[in-house]
Design a protein that fits this description.
264 residues, alpha+beta, Hypothetical protein af1432, 2 domains, 6-stranded antiparallel sheet, 12 helices, binds fe (ii) ion
Length: 264
């Protein structure tokens, strides 16, 4: 809903573009209620698959196929009079923008704007959550993977860029180790590039706080040619400077776990 609200004009434009009806009423196309309703029920079809969900092992092909049917099972389980747009969201929430999703491998131009929004929110949620079969990834890692890393082609480019600005990889107050060995604290977001916020250099190379008179900044990392972000806590962040578009990489036909089914 947060992402949908942030891109209301895009929602209107896309819904009008994709409809065959001559003119859709503005109050209809801007209505985000079906988006929220659909979002609540996307994994309804997973309910009978709870054991598989927590299985700490590779799934058989049959089990993996069952998993891939959960969008259809979920849509079918909803009552007859349920909002048709919300039902459509449940059915299509694992479709990827490059046509590699399931259950229909639906091409991009047929994907409803709400489907694209939910795909992104669900993927971000899955990747940053901890499960029995995988560690949680950091927001910085996931935002990078979805915007300019290996999974960018699954998502609507306009929407992931807005998500990156809403979520932010480095929150205000985050302590980042910089390439000069000192530590900067994030003081302001960079609207153009979320990976290059403004920082105040406030800790020395040993991580000890600098005296007030020794503070440097705010430094706009977006305008710095040599000063880079190196790490945050234990996480090496050098990957944020790599754009690894992998457009030729084959997409696995069968995902081996629930996580792989959701992310990418
Ligand atoms: Fe799902």
């Amino acid at each position: 809903m947060l992402l949908g609200s942030a891109v209301r004009e895009y929602v209107v434009k896309e819904r009008q573009r994709q409809t065959t009806a001559r003119a859709l009423r503005y109050d209809h196309v801007i209505d985000l209620v079906p988006l929220g309703m659909g979002a609540m029920f996307i994994d309804l079809g997973m309910t009978p698959l709870r054991d598989l969900q927590n299985a700490d092992r590779a799934l058989t092909e049959e089990e993996a196929n069952l998993l891939r049917q959960h969008p259809l099972a979920g849509a079918a389980a909803l009552p007859e009079g349920f909002n048709s747009v919300a039902k459509m969201i449940v059915r299509t929430h694992h479709e990827n923008l490059d046509g590699s999703g399931y259950p229909d491998a639906m091409p991009a131009d047929q994907q409803h704007i709400f489907t694209r929004i939910i795909r992104i929110a669900d993927a971000y949620d899955a990747a940053t959550a901890q499960h029995v079969y995988k560690e949680a990834k950091s927001p910085a890692r996931v935002i990078w993977e979805m915007t300019c890393g290996p999974f960018h082609r699954f998502f609507d480019r306009n929407l992931v860029r807005v998500l990156a600005r809403l979520i932010q990889p480095f929150w205000i107050g985050t302590k980042l180790r910089l390439s000069n060995g000192q530590y900067g604290v994030v003081v302001k977001y960079n609207r153009r590039n979320p990976f290059a916020p403004d920082v105040v250099i406030a800790f020395d190379r040993e991580g000890q706080p600098l005296a007030k008179s020794e503070l440097v900044g705010p430094v706009e990392l977006g305008n710095e040619r040599t000063l880079r972000i190196q790490s945050c806590g234990d996480e090496d962040l050098s990957f944020i400077y790599h754009v690894t578009f992998m457009d030729d990489a084959p997409c696995p036909a069968i995902r081996q776990s629930l996580f792989e089914a959701a992310y990418p």
